[in-house]
Structures are given as C-alpha cells and as structure tokens.
TrEMBL record, chain A:
Chloroplast recorded as keyword: no
Protein name: Sugar ABC transporter permease
Highest rank taxon of the organism: Bacteria
Cross-referenced InterPro entries: MetI-like (IPR000515), MetI-like_sf (IPR035906)
UniProtKB/TrEMBL annotation, chain B:
Membrane topology: Multi-pass membrane protein
UniProt superkingdom: Bacteria
Bilayer-spanning residue ranges: 12-34, 77-98, 110-130, 156-180, 201-222, 264-287
Name of protein: Sugar ABC transporterpermease
Pfam families: BPD_transp_1
Domain ABC transmembrane type-1: 73-283
Species the sequence originates in: Levilactobacillus spicheri DSM 15429
Keyword Cell membrane attached: yes
GO-annotated cellular components: plasma membrane
Keyword Cell membrane included in the entry's annotation: yes
InterPro entries listed in its UniProt record: ABC_transporter_permease (IPR051393), MetI-like (IPR000515), MetI-like_sf (IPR035906)
Record key words, sorted: Cell membrane, Membrane, Transmembrane, Transmembrane helix, Transport
Automatic annotation (TrEMBL), chain C:
CDD domains membership: ABC_Carb_Solutes_like
Source species of the chain: Levilactobacillus spicheri
Protein name: ABC transporter ATP-binding protein
Repeat found in the keyword field: no
Domain ABC transporter per the UniProt entry, residue ranges: 3-234
PANTHER family: MALTODEXTRIN IMPORT ATP-BINDING PROTEIN MSMX, OSMOPROTECTIVE COMPOUNDS UPTAKE ATP-BINDING PROTEIN GGTA
GO MF term list: ATP binding
Keyword tRNA processing belongs to the record: no
Record keywords, A-Z: ATP-binding, Cell membrane, Membrane, Nucleotide-binding, Transport
Top-level taxon: Bacteria
Length: 272, 299, 353
C-alpha cells in the first residue's frame, strides 16, 4: 500500500514534469526542422535530418552577437551595481546607528510596492531630458540599485552576532574594512544568490529595454528576439533556433548554480 | 543594542554608505512617483517636456468612461482569477508530492523551476507555436481545432495557460520552503495521537502553512496584475484578437507609448498601484493579526 | 596601564541610571576580576571600557590620558567575548593575523608575531584549521591570542569561561593566569562566578547595583566583607543571617553590649558552627537540633534549627538527627548595621576602624 502511494506520487510528478518540459523539447525539435516548412504535428518526421544550419542562418539574419554583447554588458553592470549599492546600504541598516534609521528603512520597503510600470512614464520623460534615450545609460543607470537586494542582504547581515563586529572594531578594523574583510566574505552564498536573481531579472527584462531603445545597436536579447519575429514571420524553425540562443545561457547558469538561486528566492521571500 | 544614541557624526557616516542607493532611488523611484501623480492630474501637458499647463481630474474621468479601460480592468481581473487560484493550488499539490520524497526531489524541483529562469519573451514565442490553430501541439494533444491566438473567446485562456505554466515553479519553491519550516515533531506527535494522513494535513500542516499560502497568493496577485511581456510576445505586439487580451499594463503601454496620452497612462498606472496597495494592505493586516496571535500563544 | 573611571554617569533612555557617579581604579599590570550578579552593571562597565558605550558624564582615563571620547579602534583595548567572536570564514592563523592586517603590519613581522602568540596560547598545531573545527577551549585560546597580538593597553575578558565544561574551566583558569603573568597586560576579567574570580584574580572588585561594594583580594572579601551584600555574594553555601537580637543573649556580655545599639543582623558562615569540644576559641556553645544532612562529596551540609532560626554548618561530621551542643567560632561571624555595613568581623576588625 505504501509502495503504491509512493509510486503514485512519482507518476503524478513525472506527468507534471513532462508538461513543464514539453515546450522546451518542442523548441529544440522545431529549431532542427527544415526551415520554412509548415509543420503538422503528426506528420513531421523524427527521422529527417537535423538542420543545424538553422542556427547559423538565424544568427546571421539579425545582429545576435550585438544583442548578446548588450545583454551581457547590461546584466553584468546592473547586477554589479545593485550588489554594490545594496551591500553598502544593507550594512548601514544592519550595523550603524543614525537619525531616522527606522523611518528611512520603512520608507524604502514601502517603495517596493510601487509597480515599476507606473514609474515607466516619468522615467522615460526624465531620460528624454537627459538625452539618454537610446544609450546604454538608459538601460543601466536606473537599475543600479535594488531595495529587494538591500532587504535580503540586511536580513543576512543581521544574523551575525554583534560581538563579531565589536571584536573587529576593537582590533582596529574600520567599518569599511569590517564590511569587506568580514561581512562580505561571510555572506558570499547569500550575495551570490541575490546577485543571480538580479542577473536573471536583468537578462530577461523586456518592457524597459523595449521602450528606451529603438536602435538595433542597443537591443538586448529579448527585445532583439521579439523584433526578429517580424523578420521571420512564420518561419518557426529559424525563430525557435533564435529562441534557443536566448534561453541557453540562463539555463546553463541555472543548472550550475541552482542551489544558490533556490536559497536566494527562499530567503528573499520568506524570511521577511 | 549598544551605543544606541545616534549623533550628527554617526548619521553623516551612515549617509556615506546609503548615498548610492538613496540617490538612485530618489531619482528613479521617488521622483517618478510624484511625477506620475502630477501627470495623472495634468489635463494639458507636453509629451516630450512633461510640462504641465493645466490640472484636473479629467484623466480619471476619461478612464471612467473609456470602454477600453473597462475592458483592461475586466481582463486583468479575469486573468488574475484564472491564474492565481489554479497556480497556488497546483503548486501546493506538487509541493506536497515533492515534500520528503525519498529520491529525485531535487530533479523534479529543477524541472518545474525551469520556466522561471527562462526569458518570458522566449517562452511566449514557443507557446505561440504550441497554440497554433492548424498544427499546434495543444490542439493536437486535446484533439480540438481551436484558433487559440486569433479567437477572442480563447485568447485570454491561452494567456492564462502560459502564465500558469510559467509561475508554477516559483510557487512550488516557496511552498517547499514553507513546508520545511514546519517542525517535524508536530506531525510526529499527531501521528502518535492517531491522526490519519488527511487529518494531519488538515489539522497540522494546513494551519501552519496558512501564512505561506497568503504570502504566495499576494505575491502571485501582484505579479499577475502587471502582466505585459507575455501579452506582447504571444500576440506579437498587440493586445490579442479584438483587444481580448488588453490588460491594465498593456493599456498603460498603449496609451503612453503608442498614443502619447501621458496623463491617461499615468492615471491608469495609479489605478494599478491602488490595486496593489489594496491587496498588500489586506495581507498586511492579516499578518499583523496572525503574528499577534502567535505571540499571545507563546506567552 | 592604570584604568580610572572618574565620576561616570550613564543612563539608558526612560530608565533609572545604570551607573551614577561611578568611580573605580584598576591597578596597572594586574589581573582584576569584576565580579557581580547579572544586572549589576559589569557588562556596562566593559562596554564603556571598549568604547561601545559613551558615558553621559564623567571621564575614563588610561594612565591619566582621557579616552572617554575615543572611538573603539583608537584606544587599543583587546577583548575576548563570551562567544569568542572568531571569524568563521578565516583560519586560526588568519584570525590571529586580523588585527595586524588591519594595522598594515608587514608580512614577515606578522608571521613572526603569529608564531609567538600561537605558541604562547598553545594553538600552534591548529593554525590551519577553521574555528568550527576547534573545541570551545581551543577557540577560547585563539580568541586570547587574537586579543593579545595587538599588544593591548587593557585586556578585557567577558565571562570567558561560561561556555566551557567544568574540567576545561579549571584548566583555562590556570592558562589565563599564566598568559596574563607572561604578558603583564592589565586585565579585567568579568564574571558572575565567584570561584573563577577567587582562583584567578590578584584583586576582586565586587559590583552590585552599579556600585563598587568592595575591592580587595579574595581573602579580604571573604573574611572581612565590607557589607552584607559582599558577605552574601562571596562564599558557598550562602551566609546564614539571623536578627542580632536573637543571638545577643547567647553572646559574651561585653560584645553584646558593645553592638546592642548599632547591629541589627548577624551573619554566620557555615564553617563557623563547630562540633564541641574544639580547640578553636568559641563565642558561645548552644544546643542545636540537627534536622538533616546533605552529602555533597567531600562536604556535608548540615541543616540546623535553633530558637526558631535555620542555620547551616559544613563543619560537622556525619551525625544522626538530634540535639547536639555546637560551638560558634568568632572568625566567620559578622555583625551588620541596618544599612548593611559590616560592623564586626569576628575579631579581625578591619571594618571597625
């Protein structure tokens, strides 16, 4: 009876897993079909040759190298910036005493409730004033900080006994030295987790880059992929090949660093 | 807490650490928030300079009378109602199946979580293919002949299915974390007291899991109120057939970016903000009561 | 380095002052124990010394240099925390090196000093291990080395033995004593445990309610307590007290008459109640009822009843319950005034003068 129950659990989970995986499988399968053929589900042949050249064609049809470069640049700088500004602020909120600390912290947390979409309009206007539309600055600067990251890091910083901080201060370490020599190395897993989450968000961001850029030179991968659809029309094999470009780097990152990502999400959402 | 007395010196010192975050936050969150309120109240303004020449409630009045806005609110609510309860329940189910699974729990978790790390645009494009009328996999699997993406009766359902698929992994993860927080000893005691599996779930796990359920629900509600990327990618830069997938955020995008109606767009953004505040406020009240109740219990 | 607290007042918001006009001097080069129950203010004093707290009024002097407003990093105080506060991500070697690194000491010099201090506290074999791989006692030694390597003006030890088991406690007490004597650093050892204080310290200061009750050697605090608080806190089992009026009729007339108007309470140490006959001079011999005896290894605690008063003795042999003539020795018998001041200490009359 117990064995049957366990077997049932596995069966249900496997069914779900197939449903989760199916779109990814199709994505790859279609990307290897002959280009510009209309495909009907029961008839296309598994045995037909795999058309790897679709990837080459797709890569050539649009400046994907440029998109990759842009996405990498934007993701790396925004993630780095977010971590830097959040680490500093998280340290102040967890270790320093100053006027208005509690009020300021609550105020910042309250700001996280504002939907980013509402801020899109005035931010667009600000960037227009700064002549930043269609620049890397527009893609990067507004995202150089994250209150979520600050909050998650502050929670982590608060878990260390105060004696550690006092010991370091007594031993001649300044706040700055304590932060970078003790607190940051101690919290490397949390910082990695938070950084990965921010990187995923940044890599996949769509609406903001769509609005603040309109030249191919500045497009990030998701925007580039979207514009690619209008070029290929119903040429699904090419489109799916391009989709694979976009998806693969994060899938690899995820599979490699899964434990950090899982820990990061759990920490940021449940320990608040 | 030692040296609890802040002074001008400590405040300046702390400000040096806070400055980068504060400057960017003020510039790109606080100021835009005020500006959005101002724009929503502007009845005459220049799109490019943002200069306002007259104020009034006209934008909100226009929203009130705009059938497109009604449709957007209606679709957003319908969509959220379609995604959230199903996603929460399915995620809870999968999490319970995964919880304390002898083997492969990690493997399944990885699979279920894949959509979350994948670009929304990319998965939407893939689903666009799956939803095709003639040779789509979805029709093939359930033996129907529905034109999912071009029939206004089904296009919202297509969007719901896509978002459900995408959001499941994240919610499963949170449920698993919530389940892990529950002390095994409670279940052990219940078992010793002769409770059946169902009784243990209903009388021990469920009550202890309620805060997690609320948290996940609120989180899912807020995320889904703001759905945009999926709509844009699934319907190739339109709001679906006959605007059948026009959501609040899409409406905002359309008014602002396509029609240059800044005031209307800002006003619709504030309505969205209002919805989010309402939900968070309700959840906050619940949590306040719940923690107070817990503390009373601890005494 | 001599440490002086001068008229220090410190209050937390919305609370009675923790310290009011507090004055205390710690002698240079000695190991001073700061003894007191929890809430007596010893942690506050420690935090003031370390610079974690700043007093509202008064001055803190290190050898006549005013350090009251110096920051934590400036006053060169070494501290061993109750939880040791070792950096979990650094090896023992790097933990000990930390203060030198912060001071930008050159590598060769640093290594030499690390070797020297690791040898002093005897952790050389563990230098490449991480704190989590060490026992509590070993962690304690590492914390000591780390605090000492910056050659502190003052070394503070905050309840350093409280997380150790009984056997390690004894060993580490001796170790701390040895290391303190080897380095000659002015050391303040904060503890609520009188045995630790009695065994380790040159001088003990007993703190209660934010006031210094008495400063002296362990012998002085035990045998000539300044007041009732000291007499009650030092010594185990605790001092038995009874009204002076109850004992007065049994005392020699001259003694009873001398303190009749001033003394209100009598304190009796458990070793002052003896089986008779005894060669020790006695104040009086009374018939007391033995109600029970507890056998605690070497010690026997006898519960006695005399004129509706409960008394305790640890100087009796195993006996059956019953009435016995018992003697009260002068040493270990104290008279206290109504305000708690000690008036008479069994003939060793320091408190009288």
């Amino acid at each position: 009876m117990k064995k049957l129950l366990i077997g049932g659990r596995y069966l249900l989970l496997a069914l779900g897993a197939v449903a989760m995986l199916l779109p990814f499988v199709w994505m790859v399968v279609i990307s290897l079909q002959p280009a510009a053929t209309t495909l009907t589900l029961p008839t296309f042949a598994w045995s037909s040759a795999l058309h790897w050249e679709n990837y080459r064609h797709a890569w050539r049809l649009a400046p994907f190298a440029q998109y990759y470069g842009n996405s990498l640049l934007v993701t790396a700088t925004t993630t780095g910036g977010q971590l830097f500004t959040s680490i500093l602020a998280a340290f102040a909120f967890s270790h320093l005493h100053f006027y208005g600390r509690r009020l300021l912290f609550r105020g910042l947390i309250a700001l996280t409730m504002i939907p980013g979409e509402l801020l899109l309009i005035p931010n667009f206007i600000t960037l227009t004033h700064l002549h930043w539309i269609n620049t890397y600055a527009a893609l990067i600067v507004p995202w150089l900080t994250s209150i979520f990251a600050m909050f998650a890091l502050r929670q982590a910083f608060l878990t260390h006994p105060q004696s550690l901080y006092y010991a370091a201060r007594l031993e001649g370490a300044s706040d700055w030295q304590y932060l970078w020599h003790v607190l940051v190395p101690l919290n490397r897993p949390v910082i990695t987790a938070v950084g990965l989450l921010q990187a995923i968000g940044s890599w996949n961001a769509f609406m903001w880059p769509l609005i603040v850029t309109n030249s191919p030179r500045l497009r990030t991968l998701p925007v580039g992929l979207m514009t690619f659809t209008s070029q290929t029309g119903t040429n699904y094999p090419l489109l799916m090949a391009a989709t694979v470009f976009v998806v693969v780097p994060l899938l690899i990152l995820y599979l490699a660093l899964q434990k950090y990502i899982v820990a990061g999400i759990t920490r940021a959402n449940l320990k608040g | 807490m030692l040296n609890p007395k802040p002074s001008l010196k400590t405040t300046l010192h702390a400000l040096a650490y806070l400055a980068p975050l504060l400057i960017i936050t003020v510039l790109f969150t606080v100021w835009p928030l005020l500006s959005a309120v101002r724009l929503s109240l502007a009845t005459r303004s220049n799109f490019y300079t943002g200069r306002v020449t007259a104020y009034g409630w006209a934008n909100f009045g226009a929203l009130w009378h705009d059938p497109d806005f009604h449709r957007a609110v209606q679709h957003t609510l319908l969509f959220t109602l379609g995604v959230v309860p199903a996603s929460v329940l399915l995620a809870l189910g999968v999490a319970l199946l995964l919880n304390r699974l002898p083997h492969c729990a990690r493997f399944f978790q990885t699979l279920y979580f894949l959509p979350f790390v994948t670009s929304t645009v990319a998965v939407s494009l893939v689903w666009g293919w799956l939803f095709q009328a003639d040779h789509g996999v979805v029709n093939g699997l359930i033996h129907t002949n529905i034109d999912w993406l071009n029939d206004p009766h089904y296009s919202l359902l297509a969007l719901i299915l896509l978002c459900l698929w995408q959001s499941l992994g994240f919610n499963i993860l949170l449920f698993l974390a919530g389940l892990n927080h529950i002390d095994d000893r409670y279940l052990l005691v219940a078992q010793l007291n002769g409770a059946t599996a169902w009784q243990r779930f209903w009388h021990v796990t469920w009550p202890l899991l309620t805060p997690t359920v609320i948290l996940i629900t609120v989180n899912a509600l807020i995320t889904n109120f703001k759905v945009f990327d999926q709509v844009y990618a699934l319907f190739h830069g339109s709001a679906g057939p006959a605007n059948a997938d026009l959501t609040l955020t899409y409406y905002l995008y359309q008014k602002f970016y396509i029609e240059n109606q800044t005031g209307l767009a800002a006003a619709s953004g504030l309505v969205l903000f209002g919805l989010v505040l309402l939900i968070t406020g309700l959840a906050g009240t619940y949590f306040h009561h719940w923690t107070r109740w817990l503390r009373k219990d601890a005494r | 380095m001599e440490v002086t607290f001068q008229d220090i007042t410190l209050a937390y918001p919305h609370q009675a002052p923790t310290l009011a006009h507090f004055t205390w001097t710690v002698p240079d080069g000695e190991l001073t124990a700061l003894l007191g129950p929890s809430g007596s203010g010893k942690t506050t004093l420690l935090n003031l010394l370390a610079g974690l707290l700043t007093p509202d009024h008064g001055r803190l002097l290190f050898d006549q240099v005013d350090v009251t407003h110096q920051g934590m990093g400036q006053r060169n105080v070494g501290m061993v925390f109750q939880d040791y506060a070792l950096y979990p991500h650094l090896t023992v070697h790097d933990n000990i090196a930390f203060p030198l690194k912060m001071a930008h000491v050159k590598r060769a010099e640093r290594e030499a000093q690390i070797r020297q201090f690791a040898a002093l506290v005897r952790v050389t074999p563990f230098l490449q291990k991480y704190p989590r791989e060490l026992s509590g006692g070993q962690q304690q030694r590492v914390a000591l080395a780390r605090a000492l390597i910056q050659r502190p003006a003052v070394l503070l030890l905050d309840e350093p033995l409280s997380n150790l088991d009984a056997e390690l406690r004894v060993t580490l007490r001796q170790e701390i004593r040895r290391i303190q004597q080897a380095t000659g650093v002015t050391t303040i050892f904060v503890t609520h445990n009188q045995t630790d204080a009695l065994q380790i310290a040159d001088t003990i200061t007993l703190l209660h309610h934010g006031q210094v009750q008495q400063t002296g050697t362990g012998h002085q605090l035990y045998h000539t307590p300044a007041n009732l608080t000291v007499a009650r806190f030092i010594g185990s089992p605790r001092l038995t007290t009874l009204p002076f009026a109850a004992l007065a009729p049994a005392l020699p007339d001259s003694l009873a008459a001398r303190f009749a108007s001033s003394a209100t309470l009598v304190g009796i140490r458990s070793e002052a109640l003896l089986a008779t006959p005894t060669p020790i001079p006695l104040l009086t011999t009374q018939t007391m009822r033995l109600t029970a005896q507890d056998f605690l290894g070497r010690d026997i605690v006898s519960h006695l009843r005399w004129h509706q008063q409960d008394l305790i003795s640890t100087a009796l042999p195993p006996l059956a319950p019953g009435e016995y003539p018992l003697g009260l020795a002068a040493p270990g018998c104290y008279f206290f005034a109504a305000n708690g001041r000690c008036l008479w200490t069994g003939g060793t009359d320091h408190a009288e003068s």
